[in-house]
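REQUEST ID: PR-0412
SUBMITTED BY: lab tech R.K.
PRIORITY: routine
TASK: structure prediction, single protein chain
INPUT:
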Amino acid sequence: MQKTLRIKNDIHELSMMNQFLEEAGEELGLSTAFMMSLNLVMEEAVSNIIFYAYKGDVEDAVDISLVREGGELIVTLIDHGIAFDPTLRKDPDITLSAEDRPIGGLGIFLIKKIMDEVSYQRVDERNVFIMKKKINYAGILKETGILTVAVAIIAAAVYFFLVPSHASVSSISGLGIVLANFIPLPLSVITMILNVVLLLIGFVTCGREFGVKTVYTSVMLPVFLGLFEILFPNFGSLTDSQELDVLCYILVVSVGLSILFNRNASSGGLDIVAKIMNKYLHMELGKAMSLSGMCVALSAALVYDKKTVVLSILGTYFNGIILDHFIFNNNIKRRVCIITKKEEELRQFITRDLHSGATIYEATGAYHFEKHNEIITIVDKSEYQKLMKFINELDPKAFITVYNVSSMKYQPKIGAF
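STATUS: complete
OUTPUT:
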């Protein structure tokens, strides 16, 4: 399976590349951890091509190809710039301080560390840079386990809370609850049929944008619903309150959906409808999701009373708010500022182990006017935990301040290979 993209040698094209990598990762069934490493490598390699392969303001193209062959991913970058073999660059001496180490060389060093094999050819006046990395099947199994747990949480929210409430909150399962009043089939079977039909329509109308993860979650959701139907037949309300059932559904399903979204996956269903509307009606995905969700909520009027319809609409609205809250909090990064006597060890841990960047400022103490270097880095939740554990072991007396960062706008590193 091969995925290709052509971008201009313009730094603003990197956003297109990142979107391409996200979609390719889903379609090729690559784990989130694998794609994070690949994103870092691609930003290093492609930004260096953009900044250094062409002299002056020459506009040209950079061709990107991703091929999965068995247990290996092969990435090929092709450009028409000046001949340059980055593999010939000598590895920098990372034991030296930033001041003593010559400029350049860290980019290809990082790429070599992350990828299993790199090679270069000059073919027909073109630079051909090939990178290979073995796919970690343990990582894929872990990813599959996480997706399975998330889908199980969503199915539990539907079966134990949404079904007893009779509300039709923005989901294919909600539509299935309404259709179950007209079609003499279990909810699991109706949901399976709807998801399969939507997947087929999605493949026909949008091509192969729906990757392995979407197919897997779309199939597993009705499977779990069917399992609950067998284990807990004729299940009633846990709360004996329609309003509390809807509230519990919103809270529980948001947990499962936030896990999926943060693993670059979805539960299928209305996400597929939204992508089709996005492509053919040129509607933003967020608005398309809201519109399709509200249509499902209004479908409750075909069967249920006014109270249930209002609950369905309110549930759809608040479900979006709660879900945004879960995703927003999970995506918050932390700006960590550290002053330590073990500066070099910390710098190497941030750049080599966390594969993250850092900035070093000179700081002067107010009491004794002592000069220190302050290392500042921005990390996500998991990286923050690793960083704090390392600092506590390295230098328990280090001075640390931490700030929450809700968003970042940055330009990838442009130091030459």
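NOTES: The mean pLDDT is 84.
REVIEWED BY: pending
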